Amino acid sequence: MASRREFLTHSCGLGVAAATSTSTMLSLGFAREAAAHNHGGDYKALVCIMLAGGNDTYNMLTPYDQDQYDEYRTFRSDLALKRDSLLPLPENDEGRTYGLHVGMRDIEQLYRQGEVAIVNNVGTLLEPIDPVALQEGRARVPIGLYSHSDQQMQWQTAVSYSRSATQGWAGRIADLQGPELANGISMNISLNGTNVFQSGELAVPYNIHATGDGAQSIWAYGDDGGYNSRRKQMIDDVFSVDHDNLLRNEYAFKMRKAIDNARTFVEAMQQAPEIQTPFVDQRLSTAMQQIVRVISVREILGATRQTFFVLIGGWDHHDEVLNNQARMLPYVSYAMSRFRDALREIGVYDQVTTFTISDFGRTLTSNGKGSDHGWGAHHLVMGGAVNGGQMYGTYPTLHQNHPMDTGRGVFMPTTSTEEYFAELALWFGVAPSELDQVLPNVRNFYSPSSSETPLGYMMS
């Protein structure tokens, strides 16, 4: 039989894994709670889908006009999609036509219905870049271009000039609005563990599972009248003691809070209505279904603002890009479409905006097997408050020796991540006067005092 010391050691280890956020425990921040910002019951949510690895968006969204398609085909050689396989979209404001990957029929329909917008050639930047200065090596560019770790961090932090940033822009928003709801649960909810995007000075994401009632819990902690009950009593006894040692006391406080939060969350989720919209048993689809369930109990949780983070890996297609995208893009298209249907089912579609991010785009040229790390990329935004059925930003005109081509068909971004994110933050309720705190480099691309929106893809 295990000794009490062994038992408690094991329990504490599991408890750390079950806590609302591992980073909270490691940092042991001593600030307790901030009052939740009052939005008067006006609920809004941002849902971030990270396609980790660097999605090849020039095969997700492809030139369809014959002249530009021919240039695309020359660039891509063995990676080029057949023109007659593309799903052509309506002509854009510049008189150009583009086609979506054949695996994205749901997104095509949502785009045509005005519910999805496409933001072209977005990427990390320090400041607007003159192509000549870039070619001559005089332009200031983000740290660690083409690096997975650097670019993933920069897309989450909106800080492209330093590797020391530890706060994400959703985390900064939570810090401004009150990092926790009245019941102690974070307004930022992650389905992929602790992440930088949702971490702030005080805010940490509340980590949940995509299945069951979501909350992470301590193993064998329950009321079965037997072993689980005895284990529960021992754990409760340990974490109810006031310690003279400040570190031990803070640890006990965090563990007790994690246990209480899990109970609160499960009790709320058990009141969620049964969602009739069908989802498939696939990772992204399952995650989006769980997000709908959480949103459906927002009033029970006391949430007026929430962000959600879902990471789907496997997009680093240095080989087999055609086969991999043919398999993976339909999952994204289907999951986003069913998510839209389920949000409509519970009556909050206009209040939820879903958007994609990724490490970077990829080379237009082939490496003989696939494509390599690039820079600018195209992204999807979906929601009832989206000015959809349009493209925003500039899709580069494809031709050889283009001044914006940094080599191998890697085009410098024409839209900064700051502009992309500022549009979302302002819609979410961030005051223009607070935008600098959320996006530290935003003024290099957009003035918060402007009467115009950064890009225009969100309704005011």
What is the typical, i.e. mean, pLDDT? 90
Major sheet summary line: 9 strands, mixed
Helix-strand makeup class: alpha/beta
| Unreliable stretches covering 5 or more consecutive residues | 1-40
Number of helices: 14
What's the helical proportion of residues?
25-40%
The number of E-state strands comes to 12
Over the alpha carbons, how many angstroms does the gyration radius reach?
23 Å
User: N-to-C terminal Cα separation, in Å?
Assistant: 64 Å
Series of secondary-structure elements, N-terminal to C-terminal:
HHEEHEEHEHHHEEHHHHEHEEEEHH
**Shape verdict:** globular
**In percent terms, what proportion of residues is strand?**
5-15%
Describe this structure in a few short sentences.
With about 450 residues, this protein is an alpha/beta fold. Helix content is about 35%, strand content about 10%.
Account of the 3D structure:
This protein is α/β, with parallel strands linked by helices and 460 residues long. It contains 14 helices and twelve strands. The radius of gyration is 23 Å and the shape is globular. 47% of the residues are buried.
Tags for this model:
460 residues, alpha/beta, nine-stranded mixed β-sheet, three-stranded antiparallel β-sheet, 14 helices, 35% helix, 12% strand, globular, disordered N terminus
